[in-house]
Amino acid sequence: MFSSDHVARVRLLYKLIFRVHRALPGELRVLGDNYARDEFKRHKNCNPVEAKIFLTEWTDYAINLAKQTKPLHQAKKKTVGKYLEPEMLEYMNDEQLIQLYELHKAASSDTDDVSNKNEILRKEDSDNR
């Protein structure tokens, strides 16, 4: 269905995304890796129009994340990611909205876990003194 050139580009982008994820904090890296893996599997047999949109969006994601994880950017901003514009929700179907909500829950859960771990470590450290 797709040319070998297309398959090679998809593979290259897939590997690039995982390489860019290496710069993320551990919890975000795992979340990002799992999400990317699932999305690429889910779109493995999509039609050419969807494939073009999919590759464009993931390429933009990889470029933006690479810029945000550069050491100079991190030293200045100390942030990764950007907020989703509310207008984008209007373009999403029900399945995408559910997926976005699940991703939000997972990201919030990971952040809470990190906060809890840090609090426990601080308490243990003060108890040991």
From TrEMBL:
GO biological process: mitochondrial respiratory chain complex II assembly; succinate metabolic process
Compartments, record wording: Mitochondrion matrix
Biased composition, class Basic and acidic residues, residue ranges: 114-129
Tagged with keyword Cell inner membrane: no
Pfam family, one: Complex1_LYR_2
Similarity section: Belongs to the complex I LYR family. SDHAF3 subfamily.
Protein name in the entry: Succinate dehydrogenase assembly factor 3
Organism: Pararge aegeria aegeria
Gene field: jg15041
